[in-house]
Specification:
It contains 9 helices and 8 strands. It is of the alpha/beta class. The chain has an 8-stranded parallel β-sheet with strand order 1-2-3-4-5-6-7-8. Helix 8 crosses helix 9. The chain is globular, with a radius of gyration of 17 Å.
Length: 259
């Protein structure tokens, strides 16, 4: 079982990283994809400690849409920062999370678009998968992915929260999607339908820790060990054994990220 998206190089885990990793291993988590922000030197530095303590971890590096405003005058500088960080990190396997966020609009939308496009171009040049963050921006996200020919490399919609119509749109475009702890929330009815709908070879599971802890840990700090609860919920929704979900989603992870 693999946690396909977490943030354990963040300060939230600096004090007890060893224990967090031990709990993940005890829960059967064989590895994880840890997200690094290319504009966060502390996180990039902490990645070395994460690797030392958990050698199976791989990294995805990008400029989040929230930070796109820093690069409004020179979007190519965002891609250059990501490129340099990838070059310096031997365990880097993807570009992301990148995309668009219209919920908060922390960065001007024009800047988000330009920075997103520049990073897609980088991923295509490096032949690396892309990890997508999209919130209330699905139409523009799909349009930019298509216009920039992102489908030349694997594309993952992380922490997918849409319905089966949007999930079908992801799949028909040739992309994959990942489910986080939200699928365990009682009111996430449409997302539960998605969990039963998506073919297993197109599905990933994640924690997005320290965010979005699944039931019964909702409201607390999330961590990679809790991806087991996501697997169990997906298994119940599909009427399959949890081991089947753990193995299939790990195989999907290996196909996409070549860890």
């Amino acid at each position: 079982m693999v946690d396909s998206h977490c943030h354990i190089a963040g300060q939230e885990f600096a004090g007890d990283l060893e224990a967090v990793i031990a709990r993940a291993r005890a829960a059967g988590v064989e590895g994880a994809l840890t997200i690094l922000a290319a504009d966060d030197e502390a996180e990039l530095t902490q990645a070395a400690e994460v690797s030392r303590r958990w050698p199976a971890v791989r990294f995805s590096i990008g400029i989040h849409p929230h930070a796109a405003g820093k690069f409004a005058a020179a979007p190519g500088d965002a891609a250059a920062a990501v490129d340099a960080a990838i070059e310096a990190q031997p365990a880097a396997r993807a570009v992301g999370e990148i995309g668009l966020d219209y919920h908060y609009d922390f960065a001007p939308r024009e800047a988000q678009h330009a920075v997103f496009r520049a990073q897609i171009s980088l991923a295509r040049r490096r032949r690396l998968p892309i990890v997508i963050h999209t919130r209330e921006a699905e139409d523009d996200t799909f349009a930019i992915l298509s216009e920039e020919r992102a489908g030349e490399v694997p594309v993952v919609f992380h922490c997918f929260t849409g319905n089966t119509t949007t999930a079908r749109r992801v799949l028909e475009a040739g992309y994959d999607l990942s489910l986080a702890g939200i699928v365990t929330f009682p009111r996430a009815v449409e997302l539960k339908e998605v969990a039963a709908f998506v073919p297993l070879d197109r599905l990933l599971i994640e924690t997005d820790s320290p965010y979005l802890a699944p039931v019964p840990h909702r409201g607390k700090r999330n961590e990679p060990a809790h991806v087991a609860l996501v697997a169990e919920t997906v298994a119940a929704l599909r009427g399959e054994a949890p081991e089947r979900i753990r193995e299939a989603t790990a195989a999907t992870f290996r196909r996409i990220f070549n860890p």
